[in-house]
Amino acid sequence: MLKIDNLTVKIGDRKILDRFELEINDGEIHAIMGPNGTGKSTLSKIIMGSKEYNVVSGTITFNGEDITDLSVDERSRKGIFLSMQNPISVEGVTNREFLRTALNARSKEPISLFDFIKKTETNLNELGIKNDVLTQNINDGSSGGERKKNEVLQIKVLEPSFIILDEIDSGLDVDSLKVVCKNINKYKEDNPKTSILIITHYSRLLDYIKPDFVHKMMDGHIVETGDSSLAYIIDKTGYGDNNA
Fold first, then answer.
1. Most CB within 10 Å of its CB: which of 6, 70, 80, 221?
2. Segments of 34-108 assigned E as strands
3. Structure confidence by residue, pLDDT tens digits, 70-103
4. What's the CATH number where 160 sits?
5. Which domain holds residue 161?
């Protein structure tokens, strides 16, 4: 599915990722944990194709294809989705317009209005979102929890094969977290080959979405890998002397 090989990334003169290595196979769930400033969110943006960073060396391969130099929209059409830590609001673009345009951009044939409405209404109901959200501008006046639910709605409608969840638990109360995770788990159950990369500070999220592998990230690279129990060790002991 996704392979990152010897990736070194800078922003200005500052090195963010240092010879970073990671391989995620079809259907696997990986979690990355680490202190602030170690490059976790940067990693998610680089996988998605952000141009604010300079890739000094290394490659990102997706389904056997080198995507290191592809644009964000090209990566999206190949099935990569980033659920952002702080989803932005977009004036003048409704959720319906965005979802239908994005869905058509990824499809061989345009989706009919009837099929689009049926698809979105089902997913809205499962997320506990009112139908009128479709006519609202993207995240306009929405709370943090509503914005995260909207991200999951996009996942369920666009059906990506590789999902990056960048601190999707931030800003969520317990009830909203349960709804969000229930829907992600259901999507994974219905699409077993989908791979997920979770970026989080806390093991709480991993109580709801169980990872196959947990990686501890420090100073721009992975320093330790284990099963889900590693998350609870980190939660209890912290990240060590370099913790920030």
1. 80
2. 54-62, 65-66, 80-83, 90-94
3. 999 899 989 999 998 787 778 888 888 888 988 8
4. 3.40.50.300
5. 2-237
| Euclidean distance between CA atoms 141 and 159, whole angstroms | 26
Q: Which is nearest to 134 in space by CA: 101, 159, 179?
A: 101
pTM of the prediction? 0.89
Residue whose token pair is 């317990």:
174
Burial (0-12, 13-18, 19+ Cβ within 10 Å), 119: middle
Picking from 173, 197, 202, 174, the residue whose alpha carbon sits closest to that of residue 184 is 197
Residues 198 and 209: beta-carbon distance below 8 Å: yes
Give the number of domains in the chain.
1
Is pLDDT at 137 greater than 50 in this prediction? yes
